Structures are given as C-alpha cells and as structure tokens.
Amino acid sequence: MDGKAGAVMQAILHDYWRSSASYRVRIGLNLLGLPYRSVSVDLLGGDQRGADYLARNPQGLVPALEIDGVILTQSLAILEYLNETHAAGWLGSASLEKARIRALAYAIAMEVHPVCNLRVARYAVSLGGTTLEDWMKHFIRDGLADFEAMLAQNRRPSQYCHGGVVSLADICLVPQVYNATRWNVDMAEFPKTAAIAARLEILEAFADAHPDRASPQS
C-alpha cells in the first residue's frame, strides 16, 4: 500500500499578521491543535488584489484557509466549519446558548470590525474631519461599551464571555482588544471585558496566535 495514501494534507492559512479576522482563525486552529502553514498576504503591499490571491478569495480579503481539499473564506464561516467538523463546542449546545454566543461574537465581528476595517477607516479619513486614530478610538470604544453592557446581562459568574468554556465570542474578543490597545482605547472603562480578555490572552492557543508571533519579522 502506498505510504502516502490517506495522508492528511497540512492546512494553509493565507493571512496578514495584524488582521483581526486572521487572528481569530489562528486562535481557532491553535485551540484544535491543527497544524497549518501560514502564507503572508501583505495587505499594505496590495497582495490581496493580485490575480493569484483573488482566485482563492474573490473578495480580496484575509483570511483564506485551504483545508480538507477546499478553500474557505470569511473568518466566522471558517470558525463555524471548524467547530462543526471537529466538535469544538464553541457555540455550546442549547439553542439559547448558541444565540447568546453568536450575539456576542457578532457584536464585534459584524458591528465593530467592519467600521474599523483599515480600508473603510482610511476612506473616511480621506473625506476629512477626522484622523485615523480618532476614528478607530470612537468606534472601538462605542462597540466595547455595548459589549460590556451585553456581558452585564449575564448575572451568573462567568470566567469567559459565556461560562467557563472558550466560545466563538472569546475567539472574536481577543483580537478586538488587541486593536483597542493598539489605538489607545482605555480598557479600564470596560472592566468585565478587560478581565475576560486577560484570562484568555494567557492561554497558549491565544498567546501563540498573537500578531507579534505571526509577524513576518518575528
């Protein structure tokens, strides 16, 4: 029998070290212990608009994950695929639990992140009336204030965003807190959020996914 038969091909993650969406997927892969090879897509250099990359992801966004013989895009879709195919438990089990976890994850990934996407923020700045830092601080701060209020609705003690098990919401939270710190948002305004993030950041899967470790210069 051919020794290569049935061999599992290593996943390939096309990402950019500072991309929040890429950061999420790195965390997810690490949590599952799935080995992968990272291929840098230099967003500042315009690699995402090259023909080769657009063939993988027509949106010209990162990340794109080559796994199981297919190419997946959009970080939340990738994470839900990994959750389902590896029984990760990132969404819990009960319907209400899933709805709450998704609401927390979406509050970051679908509300804060799109407005603070670099291409959106740069376009806003080009119209005048604001600076890049002011734009980022305004929308990140507002988004985290909403997130803090959502966390406060859960009156039960909770180690992470939803209970004591890492969820999709936690995977989305840590990259956003990284951005908040990068743009000088005072996390002391959001004690629940900051405390959860601090507990997550020391977990190996999260620490190993940090942009400082994913940077091409690291």
UniProtKB/TrEMBL annotation:
Gene Ontology terms: biological process: glutathione metabolic process; L-phenylalanine catabolic process
E.C. code: 5.2.1.2
Origin species: Rhizobium giardinii
Record InterPro entries: Glutathione-S-Trfase_C-like (IPR010987), Glutathione-S-Trfase_C_sf (IPR036282), Glutathione_S-Trfase (IPR040079), Glutathione_S-Trfase_N (IPR004045), GST_Zeta (IPR005955), GST_Zeta_C (IPR034330), GST_Zeta_N (IPR034333), Thioredoxin-like_sf (IPR036249)
Residue stretches making up the GST C-terminal domain: 94-218
Pfam families named in the record: GST_N_2
GO CC, alphabetical: cytoplasm
GO MF annotations in UniProt: glutathione transferase activity; maleylacetoacetate isomerase activity
Assigned keywords, A-Z: Isomerase
Residue stretches making up the GST N-terminal domain: 9-90
Full protein name: Maleylacetoacetate isomerase
Family: Belongs to the GST superfamily. Zeta family.
TM ranges: none
